[in-house]
Design a protein that fits this description.
binds oxa(dethia)-CoA; alpha/beta; single chain
């Protein structure tokens, strides 16, 4: 799979841990020690659609719109149930009508699932491209009196245009339905059993990465970059330790953005791309995990 371009957007409003000290019983020290998060960006007038649009426009710069045959938006926080964010993007970006455009709700695994879906569909559409977006306004789903969840999340969007190029890729993915680990309650607010999710993430992500490396016949040290869903520094550190892989392999920007759910992997990829960290031929492993519970690993060459 070839990434032709990337894009991203985060709202300008930045909420620091010190800002949270004023609204819930917490401290900068607790948040940093338990999560590695220092700040997150929070939407004001921005919507999931406007953030998705800003990221997608960047990713579409220099791309021929007629090459796009698929628009997938990973989100669990669409502004409205229907029409889909993807459908509205198709129209607003002036993309051809002959596209498949729909949203994917797999929460924090959403971008990974969109990528896996795109890979299968693009195999049947030679030369065509997919616009993939992860966009979330998680702030609209938070209970700002629940200190165990509200300090973790941020808003934003990331996007990429991808094309099947025949090079081999390797994947591992799954779902283990557990509706009580992360869910929205009757008011639509996000609830989470933090410790349970933490243990699931460390065990399952480590095993999923082992599975995909075994399929590819590679050792962790032969990877160039691992881009995990940016949920928690401690999760990433524990996964690296269990794999026996150096932390330098693992990209992190969660300190600035917190957990942006489906947006976190494309947001990270765009930052890495813009900073020149991604070189042609490098082995990149993407790892999504979260509500479902769901997870997915995807190994490819940049
Ligand atoms: O995309 C996937 C989404 N989810 C995740 O990635 C979350 C995974 N889980 C985690 O990251 C961690 O479980 C948390 C960061 C959410 C919590 O860390 P923890 O070490 O598992 O803490 P805990 O839930 O076991 O709580 C320990 C203590 C409790 O107090 P007591 O009962 O020991 O008195 C909590 O009430 O920390 C308290 N606590 C807080 N204290 C200060 C919980 N949240 C806060 C807070 N500030 N914000």
């Amino acid at each position: 799979m070839k990434f032709l371009s990337t894009g991203s957007f985060v709202p300008p409003r930045r909420m620091t841990n010190q800002d949270f000290e004023k609204i819930v019983d917490t401290s900068d020290q607790w948040i940093v020690e338990r999560t590695g998060i220092h700040a997150r960006h929070v939407a004001e007038e921005e919507t999931t659609l406007t953030m998705a649009m800003a990221a997608a426009k960047q990713a579409m710069e220099g791309v021929d719109p007629s090459a796009i045959c698929l628009v997938l938006v990973a989100t669990f926080t669409p502004d409205q149930a229907t029409p889909s964010v993807a459908s509205q993007l198709q129209q607003a970006l002036g993309l051809p009508e002959e596209v498949l455009a729909y949203d994917i709700n797999a929460a924090c695994s959403g971008f990974l699932f969109a990528l896996l879906t795109a890979e299968r569909l693009l195999e049947a559409m030679p030369g065509k491209c997919a616009l993939l977006v992860g966009a979330e306004k998680v702030s609209g789903r938070l209970d700002y009196t629940d200190r165990g969840t509200c300090i973790l999340f941020g808003d934003g969007a990331g996007a990429a245009v991808v094309q099947a190029d025949g090079r081999p890729t390797w994947a591992d993915y799954g779902n283990r339905s557990n509706g009580s680990a992360i869910y929205t309650d009757e008011k639509g607010l996000l609830r989470m059993e933090g410790r349970q999710v933490y243990q699931f993430a460390v065990r399952t992500v480590t095993q999923s990465i082992r599975n995909v490396l075994e399929k590819a016949g590679l050792e962790p040290g032969q990877l160039d970059h691992v881009v995990c869903h940016q949920a928690n520094h401690r999760i990433i550190e524990a996964v690296a330790r269990h794999l026996g892989a150096p932390m330098e392999l693992f990209f992190e920007n969660l300190g600035e953005y917190g957990n942006t759910s489906a947006a976190s992997i494309p947001l990270a990829l765009d930052e890495m791309h813009r900073n020149g960290m991604l070189k042609s031929g490098q082995r990149v492993l993407l790892e999504g995990f979260g509500s479902g519970l769901s997870w997915g690993s995807y190994l490819f060459e940049w």
